[in-house]
Amino acid sequence: MDTPRGPGRATWVLAGSLLAAALALPAESRNLGQLPAGQVPLQHPLGPQPLRDPHTVPGAGLERTAQDLPLGIWPSVENSHITTPEEAPFGMKFSKEIEVFNPPLASSASSGPWVHSVFAFTHSWPRKTLFKRDSAVTHRLYGDISRDFQGTSENGVIFQKCAVVSVQSEWPLAHVRLFVNNTRTPTAANLSDLFLLDNITGLMIRESAGNQTSRGFQAFRKKFLQVGDSFSVSYTASLEARDVGSGDILLLPAQLSFQSSSPNRTQLKAPFTITAEEKITVLPNHGLHAAGFCVAFILSLVLTWAVLFFMVRYQCVKGSSLTRHQVQHHENKLEHSQFTSADGVNEDLALNDQMIDILSSEDPGSMLQALEELEIATLNRADSDLEACRTQISKDIIALLLKNLTSSGQLSPQVERRMGAVFKKQFLLLEKEIQEEYDRKMVALTAECDLETRKKTESQYQREMAAMEEAEEVLKRVSERSAIECSSLLRTLHGLEQEHLRRSLALQQEEDLAKAHRQLAIFQRNELHNIFFTQIKSAIFKGELKPEAAKMLLQDYSKIQESVEELMDFFQASKRYHLSKRFGHREYLVQNIQSSETRMQGLLSTASAQLTLLIQKHERAGYLDEDQMQVLLERAQTEVFSIKQKLDNDLKQEKKKLHQKLIIKRRREMLQKHKEQRREQLSIAEASGAAEDAGQYLGQWRGLMAEHSAALEELQERLDQAALDELRALTLSLSEKATEELRRLQNLGMTQELLKRGVPWLFLQQILEEHSRDLAARAERLEGEERDRGQEGVQSVRQRLKDDALEASTEEQAELRHWERLIFTKLCSSAFSLSEEELLGMRQEVQGCFAQMDRSLALPKIRARVLLQRFQTAWREAEFLKLDQAMAAPELQPQSKARKPRSKSRSKIDLLKKCTEDKIQLFKEQAPEDLVEKVRGELLRERVQQLEAQEGLFAESLVSLQFQKAARMARTLWAYTALLSIQDLLLEELNSSETLTKSACMQILESHSPELQELERKLEDQLAHQEAAQLQQALDSWQQWAGEGPALLQEPEETDSERHVSAVLQRALSKGQKLLEHHQQSLREEQEDSVVLEDLLENMETDTFVTLYGQELRLASYLSKLTMLPGGTLRRLLTVALPAASQAELLAVLDSVGQKHQDHSVENDGSRVQADLGRRGILKKTCPPLRERVIFSGKGSWPHLSLESTDELTPVPIVGAEAVDLLNTGEKLFIFRNPKEPEISLHVPPRKKKKNFLNAKKAAWALGMN
């Protein structure tokens, strides 16, 4: 206990006292529940405990490791800890640690006047924050070690390292005990050749029976330990304060290896940790505290006011300019947010850091798996970057088109600004919608995956329980040892099945997420097109944009979108190639470092085995007795273990330092490169406003992205190679150093020990020379194997680059788009008639189809992994089924004649064990190689199906539209024919009832004939006018093409007449493709004009039929008035004439007939116009709207009706004596008349009509349909 100091020394701790006052309460709060000072017994928990993290301790210093002391990093100790701090005289403490584990003592080595150093032997499990989690390392001393446990093995052997701390002396003393207990368990066995190695680095051993080495280890050996027995080793050790600083941690594990019933040796570890703590006791002076507080308060107040004054003044000066700057660049910030986002750069840097983690990993076996996961994450990130680039280019293209339209005078600047603002608003709303939809999809997918995982896990658990119950029935009749072995095999098999299930579920979830990302990307692309087309329609409707200008704008947009898709195909192919090259190179680097690791372990194993072999050869030669051999073997094994421990520890520490160094270097260079490329991308995006055309803008993007990809990949490859070189150099230097130490131990240390025991020098020299040659040969063989693996890695990288070649991928995608373009063009040209609005919708749909013809980067890779996993599962299940069938019918299996007959239960347990072992082996075996080709074929088939589905959907929509038009006209003709039938029946009725004479009927028909003739004349004039206009347009287009076509070949000719012909031919060949494209474009425009004209003609004919229907409706109304036909009878007639009409349609016709009947006698010009409008409404009621109709192609051309008066009325069947089948429905209507009765019928003689290309086209189409 220190005594209080005088006031003269208080000035040294003025600031420290303020800090101590703030920390005094937490320090005192930890004094509860402490034991009195003295010896503190530490408990002995059974079994291994979870590892802790010492770096989470506040105030912890540097960890004492093998770089400082010759020991290894081991997991933490399995002992309890007790908190016993020392009370301070004035109740104030300052502790650098969270816990104090044993009472402190006064020490002359204290760092200050009120500082004491305290050391405690601590236990790991009560506090999670005190110890670092380190992976256990298995060291093969000699032979093979079958299992590596920590604390307790599976056969019931318990190994612990415990301590009791005594603080009564000047230095804390620890009474350490190593305890081995071979408990009685069903799997217990006698142990032999027990070798115990204890790490005592940094401790001063006072009383110990072990053999100490110069490297901080002591060894103990026991030849035999029966089941149920135990033995322990005790010794006393101390630790001086001046050797360890506060917060340092000493990891001193112990290791036990022994031989049991298994053929290989088993190794156990008992972790043990020492934590040094420092406690400061402060004796405060209250007067000085008060003075110091006042001075500090005044100074802090003055500084605070000064800082606030300057901050306010600085903000006032720069506030206005900053606001203007933010307003000026707000729109640009929104536009280019995809490129300026810091999150994307940070994510890219984090992905690149993972490569260093993989290369510096301590588990070489998991490197390739980690690299594959990194590749998938990188591909997903690349997809996001490309999608952001596509969106930005599309926005810039729209702005560029509007600017060009304004510069040509077809759009006013005010409208351009308004449309630009609307586009930006719509784009922001779309981004918000995409984000919300993404969040919803992620929540839904997560819930769905959790549910699927729960179901499959429960199903797997039920199968395992059923298998265990079935096995238990068999195991009841066998020995306990066989039952335990079989149960262990079943548990291993079930563990492998669970791991396989987790892998499958993880891959399926990864595929679902990738598909969701793809769907959102496609949705965003289609919505961008939809926004553009919708705004153009709105501008046309408002009159802000002329239809001709809108048509040219849409044509330009379609052409530019084709160029954008080609550009994105290039970006995607380039990205795929560079990423394939990057990860192929990284896979080669991982294989290289694995080869170096294998070479290092091989040399160390050979050098350590030679030590054992050297001693055994002398024992077999008779120069050493058994006791001498055991002593030398024990010492050799101790030294070998020490060297390997030091190597592992040095590797871990040096890799940790190098890892941090490489990460900092990589981040610095990558961040600088990203900043440079981001500035260039922003400059390109901002320069889009100054670009003259879209082609120039897209060309700038193409060159920039190609340059950026090449530069970035070059930097990545250089950094990866540099990291590998440094890590490999570090590993090789340390391993060579360890190998040299083993050789020195063999040539010097062990040689001296053997010579001391009288071994002949010549015999020893001969063995050493032989070992030297063997080691050199082994090193050369390992180098050769490493070179061979390196060559295989190079070939693998070349094959990978060949599969993902940039030119081949780009050409394949270009050919695919060309083929799909031909298909869509052919489908569009097959349309008979389309309006301008429908044609615009077709273009938009085509753009949507082309927008999803690309291949994403990540989804095919993920889908391939899922398919491969699925095929492997199917193959494995088929093999399992064969094994189960063989087990169920063992009599069918061939048996050896020499096999002795065994009991039935013994045979069953052997079959069960053999079947289980075979299933376990199937999980370890590689699946057949043909599964990879099967996966490729399945991916190709799925892509073909996807493209065919797009074609089918587009064709279906197009056919549906045509069927709607045909169905509309067929219903119109049907209604008109039914009306004529009713007129015929009414005239017959009037004639038969002698209400009207034949002359009166003829007079009625003659009064109706001029209206029909006038209507026909108007229709003929309109058709002729439209045909002439189209013919003139086609002639102008042909003249334009004829003038522009040869002009493409007009170039300055060479003066040399001998080369004139060859020059012309060369120019013709070079311009042939351009001429062909120009001609195809002209042909497409002609086809579009043709279908639009056909739709216009159809509308004219429809309007004519509407007028004709109204006239016939008036006549039918008048005739029904004359016949005094009841409403019910008329309704029945309509039902017979229109059997497929709905009730609402029949009622509409009846109302129209009644209305005409009332208005016929007082009809004038005004009422006629009103009646015409009503007739149009009636016809539209019988014909559904355009968007609700279904497509059907009618037969033949529409009839041109004429009505001519003749002297004699020629009977013409109204619905005919023949059956009429409308719309191919199969329904036929038959009307039978009495031939003796007089007939009054309309005479509609055939009339020659001028043929044109539309009627010829209709006729040809009708013949094709027939």
TrEMBL record:
Membrane topology: Single-pass membrane protein
Biased composition (Basic and acidic residues): 780-791
Signal peptide stretch: 1-29
Keywords: Cell membrane, Cell projection, Coiled coil, Cytoplasm, Cytoskeleton, Membrane, Signal, Transmembrane, Transmembrane helix
Subcellular location: Cell membrane; Cell projection, Cilium membrane; Cytoplasm, Cytoskeleton, Cilium basal body
Ranges in a coiled coil: 454-481, 698-725
Pfam family, one: EVC2_like
Residue ranges, annotated region (Disordered): 780-802
TM stretches of this protein: 288-312
A biological-process GO annotation: smoothened signaling pathway
Entry's Gene Ontology cellular component terms: ciliary membrane; plasma membrane protein complex
Cross-referenced PANTHER family: LIMBIN, LIMBIN/ELLIS-VAN CREVELD PROTEIN
Protein name: EvC ciliary complex subunit 2
Species of provenance: Bos mutus grunniens
